[in-house]
Amino acid sequence: MSSDLAARRAAVLGPNVPTFYETPVHLVKGDGVWVWDADGRKYLDCYNNVPHVGHCHPHVVSAIAAQAAQLNTHTRYLHAGIVEYCERLTAKFQTQLDQVIMVCSGSEANDIALRMAQAVTGKTGIIATDNTYHGNTMAVSQLSSRKPPIGGYADHIRRIPAPDTLRPVGGTADDQAAAFARELQTAIDDLEASGHGFSGFLFCPTFANEGLPDLPQNFMKPAEQVVKAAGGLLIADEVQPGFGRGGETWWGHEWLGLSPDVVTLGKPMANGHPVAAVVARRAVMAEFRNAFGYFNTFGGNPVSCAAAAATLDVIEQDNLVDHAKNVGAVFLRELHSMDHPSIASRRGRGLFFALELETDGAADEALAAHVVEYARNHGLLMGRSGRNRNILKLRPPMPFSNENVAMACDILQAAFKA
Ligand code: PMP
């Protein structure tokens, strides 16, 4: 039945729409940190940061159902849902980040952020890290490195090396931060010389798609100064780290002590309902609205806001940010006790971890693929990332427990042994 579905999927969706795994997992049900396939097999989900408060959380499900039964429409009518939600959301940020645009995907949010940088500076040059991903619109995909754009990267884009745990540039933590800021300054100078000018730096505060490097907490401070001195916008893409994923703080930029001009949000925001947002300083918002205006048919509709508000409720009521810190510390300790000569680095914060695999000093993509496949066949779902796809990525729903940690690590250890 699943193979039949896979064939029909390929026939109707077209080529190059990959599923994970050699034999795709055909999921039919989720609950908390668990998902089930069509044969009734249960998997522990360590892949997914979208069902942030757990798959099918009853509070979120009933909020969606109740609002869907009441009213769903676009945002050109007055509705309390979007106002109340955005008030609650902005209260989680530094006071100057106090206005919101609700959208439906992280890609749309980043696309708006790029236009905000244009509106404020009157320039178009944008800088991102290499080996990143910020989304799939025409503008944003120019920053992403998964597949080079047709015709090559646009001339107004500069990409600087992302921080790298195993091969850091610079010795001490301060040296590394200074080296990164120097790269940024060089790219800014280059953009200014090219005539495009510098409008902003868009980065993920955990460099998650780049491989989740261990960052000194002051890593981005010199870079922030460079961006601000050059008059560009500092844009934090919180699609991966946002909503407490890293434990301790709600936002990745907060942990780094930064004051961004624009923050983009997505994935975990409404526990799987397509909700994303841009949070910006009001002066930035004013320039953007004046320059472009903006309307998004589905963004911020009543059902989306009900889903997002219910997700916030659960994070707050269940103290999931602290929980991520506490259980995450146990998880990291267990990862450190894991034994295999090819584990070159184990790192992470909160409930987001990376195990970087190298054999004889070189990225071991085959081993990473083997571990992910073995884990899938033994009831654990996880992913891979990094330039060489040799970094195991673990990112479970936030209510992950110590027992879940023990089970995940048992399977991982067995995968390494096998
Ligand atoms: N930014 C980052 C850092 C992401 O990881 C992603 C998605 N993986 C996006 C933006 C794009 O989000 P979406 O898929 O919702 O458009």
Per-chain topology:
Layout: H1 2-13, E1 27-31, E2 34-37, E3 42-45, H2 58-70, H3 80-90, E4 97-103, H4 106-121, E5 125-129, E6 157-160, H5 173-194, E7 198-203, H6 221-229, E8 233-237, H7 252-255, E9 262-265, E10 276-281, H8 282-291, H9 302-317, H10 320-337, E11 343-349, E12 352-359, E13 362-363, H11 365-377, E14 380-381, E15 383-385, E16 391-394, H12 402-417
Parallel strand pairs: 3-14, 5-6, 5-7, 7-8, 8-9
Antiparallel strand pairs: 1-2, 2-3, 4-10, 9-10, 11-12, 12-13, 12-16, 15-16
Helix pairs in contact: 2-9, 3-9, 4-8, 5-6, 10-12, 11-12
The structure holds 4'-deoxy-4'-aminopyridoxal-5'-phosphate.
4'-deoxy-4'-aminopyridoxal-5'-phosphate (PMP) binds next to helix 4.
InterPro entries: Aminotrans_3, Aminotrans_3_PPA_site, PyrdxlP-dep_Trfase, PyrdxlP-dep_Trfase_major, PyrdxlP-dep_Trfase_small
GO molecular function, one term: transaminase activity
Family: Belongs to the class-III pyridoxal-phosphate-dependent aminotransferase family.
Subunit organisation of the chains: single chain
Proportion in helices: 25-40%
Model regions low in confidence, pLDDT < 50 over at least 5 residues: none
Classify the fold: give the CATH topology of the largest domain: Aspartate Aminotransferase, domain 2
Mean pLDDT across residues: 96
CATH superfamily of the largest domain: Type I PLP-dependent aspartate aminotransferase-like (Major domain)
Q: Shape, please?
A: globular
The CATH class of the largest domain? Alpha Beta
